[in-house]
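TICKET: design request
STATUS: open
ATTACHED STRUCTURE:
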C-alpha cells in the first residue's frame, strides 16, 4: 500500500544526505551572521559597509572562489529551508494546537532560509543589492493598498514581536532544547554564545519592526528599512557606536553558535 505524504516526508528526514545538507545550512547561516557582525562593528566605528545579508554575501563573493562559496551557501540554506518545510508538514506535537503552532513556526523559518539562500544565489549571479531601497519599495507597495497603513503596521508589530521573542529565548536560554549541549567548559561557552547572540539578533529585529511601524503611522515608506536601517538607527542613539559594536559582536556570537549548532542540533527523524 502506498505511503501517505506525511510518512513519505518523515522518511525523507531519515536520509543521511538530507540531514548532512541541513546541518551544512547551519554552517552557512552562521558564516553569514559572523560576516554580518563584522560589518556592523566596522560601521559602528566609522566604516561604510552594507550591514545586511546581501552585504555579507558580497563580502564572500570578493573572496577567492567566491562564486563557488556563494553557491555552496545557497544550496545548504535551501536544504535547511527544505528541512524546516518538512518539519512544518510533519508537525509533530502532543495536541492539535501544539502541532499547528509548530507548523507555523517551522514554516516561517523555512521561508526565511529559502529566501536567504535566494539572496546568496542572486549575488552569485551578479546581482547588486539595493539595500534598504527594496524594503522601502515594499513598504510603499503595501501602503498603496486599501488599509495599507494598518497592514504595514501589523507587519511591523509582527517583526518587532519576533525580535522580542529572540531576546526572550536568549534570556531564558530556551534554545537549549534544540541542541544536545556538550558538558564542561565548552558547553558553557556554547550556551553563552547562544545567549548573547539571540539577544543581539532580537534587538536588531525589534528595531526593524519599530521602523516599519513608524513608516505605517507616518504613511512614509522612507521611514522603514531593513537591517541596514536598523543599524543606522541604533548608531543614532546616545550609546551610538558602543551599542552598534555590541550588536555586531552579538551577531558574531550568534554566528559562531549557529556554526557549532550544525553538530549539536537535534534533528528529529
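STATUS: resolved
RESOLUTION: sequence designed for all positions
ATTACHED SEQUENCE:
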Amino acid at each position: 500500500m502506498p505511503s501517505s505524504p506525511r510518512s513519505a516526508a518523515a522518511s525523507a528526514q531519515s536520509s543521511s544526505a538530507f540531514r548532512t545538507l541541513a546541518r551544512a545550512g547551519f554552517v552557512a547561516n552562521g558564516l553569514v551572521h559572523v560576516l554580518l557582525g563584522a560589518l556592523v562593528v566596522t560601521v559602528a566605528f566609522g566604516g561604510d559597509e552594507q550591514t545586511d545579508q546581501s552585504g555579507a554575501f558580497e563580502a564572500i563573493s570578493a573572496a577567492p572562489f567566491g562564486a563557488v562559496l556563494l553557491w555552496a551557501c545557497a544550496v545548504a540554506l535551501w536544504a535547511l529551508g527544505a528541512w524546516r518545510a518538512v518539519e512544518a508538514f510533519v508537525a509533530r506535537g502532543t495536541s492539535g494546537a501544539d502541532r499547528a503552532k509548530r507548523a507555523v513556526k517551522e514554516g516561517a523559518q523555512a521561508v526565511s532560509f529559502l529566501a536567504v539562500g535566494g539572496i546568496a544565489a542572486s549575488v552569485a549571479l551578479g546581482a547588486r543589492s539595493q539595500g534598504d531601497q527594496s524594503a522601502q519599495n515594499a513598504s510603499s507597495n503595501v501602503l498603496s493598498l486599501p488599509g495599507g497603513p494598518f497592514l504595514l503596521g501589523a507587519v511591523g508589530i509582527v517583526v518587532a514581536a519576533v525580535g522580542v521573542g529572540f531576546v526572550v529565548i536568549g534570556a531564558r536560554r530556551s534554545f537549549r532544547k534544540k541542541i544536545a549541549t556538550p558538558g564542561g567548559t565548552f558547553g558553557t561557552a556554547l550556551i553563552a554564545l547562544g545567549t548573547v547572540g539571540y539577544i543581539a539578533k532580537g534587538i536588531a529585529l525589534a528595531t526593524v519592526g519599530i521602523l516599519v511601524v513608524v513608516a505605517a503611522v507616518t504613511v512614509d515608506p522612507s521611514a522603514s528599512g531593513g537591517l541596514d536601517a536598523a543599524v543606522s538607527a541604533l548608531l543614532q542613539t546616545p550609546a551610538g557606536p558602543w551599542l552598534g559594536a555590541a550588536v555586531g559582536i552579538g551577531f558574531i556570537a550568534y554566528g559562531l553558535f549557529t556554526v557549532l549548532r550544525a553538530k549539536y542540533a537535534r534533528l528529529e527523524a
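CLOSING REMARK: The chain has a mean pLDDT of 84. Residues 5-264 form one domain.
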